[in-house]
Amino acid sequence: MDVSSILASHAEKYKSITVEKANPLEVDAAYLTVTDPNPIDVDSYDNDLEEHLQSLARDGTQALISSLFQLPINRSDDGPLAQLPAPIAPLPRAKHLPKPKPPTKWEQFAAAKGIQHKKRDKKEWDEERQEWVNRWGRDGKNRQLEEQWITEVPLHADIDHDPRKIARDERKARVAKNQKQQQGNIARAQSSSSAQPQPREERKKDIDRTLSSARVSTASMGRFDKKLEGEKKMRGVKRKFDSNEQGGDSERKNSLALLSKMDSDSRKMRTRPSSGGDETVNVRKAVKFVSKGKGAVAMGKEAASKKKFKSGKRK
Amino acid sequence: MLRTVKPKNARVKRALDARAPKEVEDDRTAIFVKGTHTGEVVNNVMKDLMALKRPCAISFSKKNEIRPFDTASSSTSISSLEFWSAKNDASLFVIGQTTKKRPNALTFVRMFDGRVLDMLEVGVEKSVNMNDLKTPKSTPGHKPLMHFASELFTTHPRFMQLKTMLLSFYNGEEISEICLSGLEHVISVSCAPTPPYLNTADADAAPSTSLPKVHIRTYTTRFLSSGTKVPRVELTPMGPSLDLTLWRHQEADPEMLKQAMKRPKLKKQDIESGLGKKRKNMEVDEMGDLRGRIHVGAQDLNKLQTRKMKGLKGDVDERESKRSKTE
């Protein structure tokens, strides 16, 4: 029996799902993308453009499909789901990365104490009614005490004792407390993130500054200008003084700060003329004195001639 | 710039939360804008590109005076782009414009954080519409496969920009899973043969007017059985088919691009499962335990501290000679 034809047809079928190229195709499965780095064949391009493009696309798509079908697969109702890897060459994002939210006071406390977050169900089991009821909201369990038709009153209670009102006030107080804490968290988060300039606030400050400088920029420095109705008096910066009684520590610190400020090069209060060498001797003055006003050059010449004279005498 | 709104009720809060930056981003929305004059060609091309981009596509039907590459009016054009981007929560634009100098121009604009990241202008030389081909079409909303053919897409900066732009346009969303039976169509981007002057080292010095043409073709796929797990793929032209030339462009500002390329920190679980690159000499065995391999340098056995014994101290001959000297 000759099976060569069957084998050949099988091989042909198998060949059609493998793509042979000089450079291997680069598949980025995360973006369902294949890049063919091989140069375009000029002959087939010129010969029949559409045919050339379609065969190129078929080869590329075949390579992509082959790699996609080899990925690990999850079964689902809609068909097999291929699990995609992370992208090889990521694309730029559309928006910046989300900034981490500052933790609330409770979250800080829980982290310090090692308290795990526990998810609380919205529903609660009602023993009497034998069903799940909302913890809050419509027919909420938190209003049960206010809404039940009969409530026990303690012995010797006041005449105006109203258990419904007490329960309601308590619930309202809890809500108010929670809201207050929430506001506190928001305020804390804002103050911690205020290191970044907030454009609206910056602009407001800028306008105020411009306005105040414009008001004093007239010939009379704003003194005889027409006042608008409801215009407020301009407020300057108030001087502030330290209190007279201070601890020794702060006084010492202030004095040292002042001394170091005086000593520092950048803000020297008296600048000395810079002179080379020893600063205790004024060289220019000393030379003038020794040479009796003739100058350094003359003194040098004189010294040289003296030396010559001395050496000659010795001989 | 739009004022930031403080949510006053739950619905507004939900809407704002949907727009807030996310770690894993949603698909980018594209806005198709018509310039002061658009011919029939540009209109049809934009319609087809939009059909491929649906449902994340918004069409502006009125004409707009927008010329992002024009030096005189670029700032107003860019500020209107930024305004539209903020208003519609869109980060991609296609601007169609026909002038005498640049007939049938399409400008692709990519935004980051509500500002323009980069721009790319192409001219449509030849186009076949989706409706001209009486062939089956893909379902709107299905993800396309992308195919880029030419070495220029990995070497030449202009073509690399085109590649990432088209990728952001149609396949920018990072997804974890894909339904294999839902792969219906492929967008193939190919180039004309590379001219010899582009193969030299200083490819940038070559005039940009003579960059090779770009051919964009779209095909629907048919999966035929091949006898193996992997099916054999056959393609049918679907349309649109575009022949494009690259015109003007604006590169991304490097600082902004750096911000845009920032990735979220990998979670510990992902690193262990092999997502990150810092996973050397570590593997998880079948029991789910993390196993490591430690490389220790070669040990110097001469310095090994053994039990001290008189007989083992130094060489015997040496000690003998020492003793004889002292005597």
Automatic annotation (TrEMBL), chain A:
Compositionally skewed regions (Basic and acidic residues) per UniProt: 199-209, 223-254
Xref: Pfam families: RRS1
Region (Disordered) residue spans: 169-283
Cellular component aspect of the GO annotation: nucleus
Gene Ontology BP terms: ribosome biogenesis
Function per UniProt: Involved in ribosomal large subunit assembly.
Protein name, per record: Ribosome biogenesis regulatory protein
Organism: Cylindrobasidium torrendii FP15055 ss-10
From TrEMBL, chain B:
InterPro entries with a match to the protein in the record: Brix, Rpf2
GO biological process: maturation of LSU-rRNA from tricistronic rRNA transcript (SSU-rRNA, 5.8S rRNA, LSU-rRNA); ribosomal large subunit assembly
GO-annotated molecular function: rRNA binding
Transmembrane feature ranges: none
Biased composition (Basic and acidic residues): 312-327
Gene Ontology CC annotation, any one: nucleolus
Annotated Brix domain residues: 28-255
Locations listed in the record: Nucleus, Nucleolus
SMART domains assigned to the protein according to its UniProt record, in alphabetical order: Brix (SM00879)
Main location: nucleus
Pfam families listed in its UniProt record: Brix
UniProt cross-references to PROSITE patterns, sorted A to Z: BRIX
Region Disordered: start-end pairs: 260-327
Keyword line: Nucleus
Residues spanning the signal sequence: none
PANTHER family reported in the protein's UniProt record: BRIX DOMAIN CONTAINING PROTEIN (PTHR12728), RIBOSOME PRODUCTION FACTOR 2 HOMOLOG (PTHR12728:SF0)
Family to which the UniProt record says this protein belongs: Belongs to the RPF2 family.
Name assigned to this protein: Ribosome production factor 2 homolog
Upper classification of the organism: Eukaryota, Fungi, Dikarya, Basidiomycota, Agaricomycotina
